[in-house]
Amino acid sequence: MQILVFIETDGGAAVASSWEALGKALSLTDQVSALVIGENVGDVAAEAGSRGAKTVYVIDDASRALFDLDLYAADASNVLSQSEADAFLASHTGNGRDLMAAVGFDLQAGVLADCLDLSADGDKLVGLRPIYSGNILVDATTSGPVQLATLRPRAAAPAEPTGASADIVSVTPAAVAGRVEVQKVERAEAGEISLTDANVIVSGGRGVSKDPELGFKLIGELADTLGAAVGASRAAVDAGFIEYKHQVGQTGKVVRPDLYIACGISGAVQHLAGMNASKVIVAINKDSEAPIFSVANYGIVGDLFDVVPAMNEAAKGKL
Amino acid sequence: MKYLVCVKQAPDTAELPKVKAEEAASGELSIQLVVNPWDEHALESAIQSSEDYGGSVGVITVGGEKAIDALRSGLAMGCAEATLIEDTEADAWGVATLLAAAIEQMGDVDLVFTGQLTVDGNSGMVPIALARKLGWPVLTGVAKIIEVTDDSIVVERVVGEARLTVKTQAPAVLSVIKEIGEPRYPTFIKIRKAARVKIPTLTASDLGVDAPAPVVQMDNYRKPPARDAHVQLFDNASDLVDALLAEKVL
Amino acid sequence: MDFAFITEHEMVQKTVRDFAEKEIRPVIGEYDREHKYPHFLLPKMAELGVMGICIPVRYGGAGMDYISLGIVSEALEWADASVRETIAVHLALNAMTVFQWGTEEQKQRLLAPLATGAKVGCFGLTESGAGSDVAALKATARKDGDDYILDGEKMWITLADVADYLLVFAKTDPAKKHRGITAFMLERGMAGLSTGAIEDKMGVWASNTGWIAMNAVRVPARNRIGEEGEGFKVAMSALDNARYTVAAGASGGIRAVMEASLRYSQERETFGKKIAEHQLVQQMLAKMALNYDIATLLWQRVGWLKNQGVRNTRETSQAKWFATEAAWEAASDAVQIHGAYGFSAEYGVERYLRNAKGAAIYEGTTQIHQLLQATYALGWRRDKPLRCELPAYDPEYWQE
Q: How far apart are CA A205 and CA A248, in angstroms?
């Protein structure tokens, strides 16, 4: 099996979860190539080689500085046919998902979307797909001219740099006109950790309601100490305690950190669907009967307004 | 300006854990079905846009006869018309093909709204495939409608951790996220009308298309293994931090 | 026979249950604890169409049927009795009375703003010395030219401080006892009219309960609802409508505590097993499920009779008696199942217990309903036709 892996770039740097897709591909076959599209992405292409891709197809052009689906899909289709890969893999980011959907539909090839794992059955790619918001698992395969898949962030170990180098194949950008004009780009503040990439998440729920501002300040301080991202339950978001982008759960983000600390979150099924794949779950809740304790590994029955600052102090002393 | 919202009837999120493997395999669920929550936000933003910029909103779905309930919810929120495409076999590409055929048949749709994801299929593929089939641009992760004109739209998108303000031509397909606005409640007056309206039902042959055969095969439906967590409780934060350090997750 | 809801009933139920879950449940415990009336819900309920759900569109309502009124009551009391009380009082006791007894001019002038929710109504029958014994009421109305002059005090009046339109009962002919009672619509701002709140109550803390004082309030004759001396019949017919919402509401209360009990009993473990596995707990759960169904069937029968335009005083009284007592029992059992957590205010089931007691007292105590049922059973009581019956539901007329 030959696999082509899409290495997504942003501002000339690789999107970290792309290396996980590359790592997964390398665990399935040694016939792995990479596709790098962007502007000033020579370093990323070299890094893809160092991390194990045998051939790296590069489209480096000012018109590709930002992800544009029309352009990227045309480029990817060209490279796919040029490379003769029989599988095409990306990380399931927003852009990765869009690209795979477009290429897949254009070729009438199936996409194994948002897989938790991928395996090879001969030349057949088998995706472990969560459906019904993680409540059902299936083994999915595709028919069609090429097998496409996206891998959920943090579902696989990233490919590590080895110092190897790849054949770099420079590809002419497809002659397609874009239809979307980007008027403004606001990037996340430097140092802000994305929920989907985070190793550690500290989340707050309705339990902060007696003083939401203070509650999320304490949660933020603990997150800073632990190098963690800040999450929230839907209840906290709907009550206006914190912005939607922090929401973990069914209508927010699905996360799988090594450590998830749920503070004042009761554990509604919609929330559990977003975080119960976390490696270790800690529950801090006043109510010892809260459902969150039934999925937690560790817990403290107590008020988050006392426990969270105490944890922060303890962690500062020990880290 | 004509808006069309593509919705899917999906399980009530509170009941999702009750879905059994064999039900998921057959597609015959015993739990409560509602409008996919992401699509409710699409309904809200399309209706809100029609109020802000003029025009009318239609709602469409692909599904079985029961999916009419999802369309009635759209009508009760403020959509003016509804269409059911009756098909229970189509996968993402099939659904996109059927929707595209219906949209082409309507001929006057300017903007298609849909939710970014369904809570059952979880792939998020349909809005992009629909746009490809129609040859229209697609904007996913739409968090805010900034301006609608006769032939263009400006929106704010969330892509990863970044927010982008983008403009594209109409007609176009948009997939929205919750941030775009909480769905309004239906009013009883609209419910009354929605409950009584006769909703036209189309089939693939009415639309003159063959829905492509599914290209994704799913097998071995199963419940995920239960988390084997037995909670260990601590009295103080310091002991908890020690345990987390011992687990090597800090 | 057909026990199934039609599509619009299902849609109304889903909408108002969603509303109760998202808009009322998350905050009502706090309003209850702080004895605050949730004013913010009124415009939201008006937007939905709750404030005049079963009133024809021509008079500002949503044009739905009487079963929908029951559905709304059930869903609201699932969140809290105080919110359902608002509908019982504003809509069933006040607006529906104008719809049933009012002249066309009154329907245009008084009913339409009530049905849209632009104005809020309350119902002033009870006095400190006259509850179930309506004939004992002391408030008077004296004719003066084209007006009436009202004097007296009303007690235990829900929404007394909130209402714009106050439907008040007073004696125009004290010698004739209950045949001398007449109904008047008072409007906030009339000289001599004042209201106040009653603070200390066992339950329904999020409800506004108060008194009305009338000190020579001049009310124009065009605000008289029904004829002189017809007030007792007006009041009793109003109670048929309100008791229906109380019955449906009580079934919603049963559903709330049953859900809580079913959940808790499958989480909590004692003696090495879930408490739901203990047979004495199962007995309580079974009783809740049975009583929820009985209460539901009883109120839905009343809704059906109302839709047909059939007099339903007997059936309404049965539904109200049964459902409110069953709600009290279910709430009491729910507190028992929750143990110490049930007794603590944090879990909220004790709120249903406190609220349930009120419903077994207002709108006819359990004992009054028992007496009424005995006289029906014995054949000593037969309802006579009223000059103005509540009109049968006619979708064409309601929605024109």
A: 10
Q: Which residues contact A172 (CB under 8 A, 6 or more apart)?
A: A59
Q: How many CB atoms lie within 10 A of CB A13?
A: 14
A289 to C264: CB separation less than 8 angstroms, yes or no: yes
Residue of B nearest to A138 (CA): B221
Residue A148: inside a domain, yes or no? Answer: yes
What tokens does B117 get? 């994801």
Domain span at C166: 122-231
CB contact under 8 Å between A111 and B37, yes or no, is no
Assign residue A282 the CATH number of its domain. 3.40.50.1220
Question: Chains meeting B at 3+ CB pairs closer than 8 A?
Answer: A, C
Residues of A in contact with C27 (CB under 8 A): none
CB atoms within 10 A of CB C129: 11
Residue C222 lies in a domain: yes
Report domain extents, chain B: 2-222
- Do C285 and C329 fall within a single domain? yes
Give per-residue pLDDT as tens, A89-124.
999 999 999 999 999 999 999 999 999 999 999 999
Are A289 and C267 an interchain contact pair (Cβ–Cβ within 8 Å)?
yes
- Contact with chain B for residue C60, Cβ under 8 A: no
Indicate whether C269 and C368 sit together in one domain: yes
Query: B165 pairs with which residues across the strands?
Result: A184, B156
What is the extent of the structural domain holding A154? Answer: 3-170
Under a CB-based contact definition with an 8 Å cutoff, are residues B111 and A99 in contact?
A: no
- For the record, the structure tokens of A127 come out as 């995706």
**CA torsion angle C290 C295 C297 C303 (round to 10):** -170
Q: How many CB pairs under 8 A join A and B?
A: 257
Q: Quick one: A11 and A126 in the same domain?
A: yes
Task: Give domain status of residue C2, yes or no.
Answer: no
* For C10, nearest residue in chain B (alpha carbons): B195
Query: Which residue among A170, A205, A228 closes a domain?
Result: A170
Query: Within this chain, do residues A151 and A252 fall inside the same structural domain, yes or no?
Result: no
Is the same domain home to A165 and A220? no
Residue C363 catalytic? yes
Cβ(C72)–Cβ(C18) under 8 Å?
no
C267 shares contact with chain A (CB less than 8 Å): yes
Residue C269 is predicted with a pLDDT of 86
Contact B186 C57 (CB under 8 A): no
Residue to test with chain B: of A143, A147, A238, A251, most B Cβ within 10 A: A251
Q: Pick from C169, C299, C274: which is nearest to C228 by CA? A: C169
Task: For residue C140, tell me if it sits in a domain.
Answer: yes
Q: Which of C325, C363, C389, C396 is catalytic?
A: C363
* Closest in A182, A244, A270 to B179, CB measured: A244
Question: To the nearest whole angstrom, how far is the Cα of B187 from the nearest Cα of chain C?
Answer: 4
The CA distance from C293 to C289, in Å, is 6
Spell out which residues of chain B touch residue C57, defining contact as CB-CB under 8 Å. 189
The tokens for A134 are 């993680």
Rounded to whole angstroms, the Cα distance separating A160 from A20 reads: 9
Tally of domains in chain C: 3
Q: How far is B191 from chain C (nearest CA, A)?
A: 6
Tell me the mean pLDDT per 10 residues along chain A, length 319: 97 95 97 98 97 98 97 98 95 98 96 97 96 96 95 96 95 96 91 90 94 96 96 94 94 94 94 94 92 94 96 94
The verdict on residue A31 lying in a domain is yes
Contacts with C267 from chain B: Cβ below 8 Å: none
- The complex scores an ipTM of 0.96
Structure confidence by residue, pLDDT tens digits, A147-190: 999 999 999 999 999 999 999 999 999 999 999 999 999 998 87
Residues C24 and C37 grouped into a single domain: yes
| A175 located within any domain | no
Does any domain span residue C282?
yes
Alpha carbon distance C86, C122 (integer Å): 9
What are the tens digits of pLDDT across the range C338-397? 998 888 887 789 999 999 999 999 888 999 999 999 999 999 999 999 999 999 999 999
CATH number of B2-222: 3.40.50.620
Same domain, C220 and C140: yes
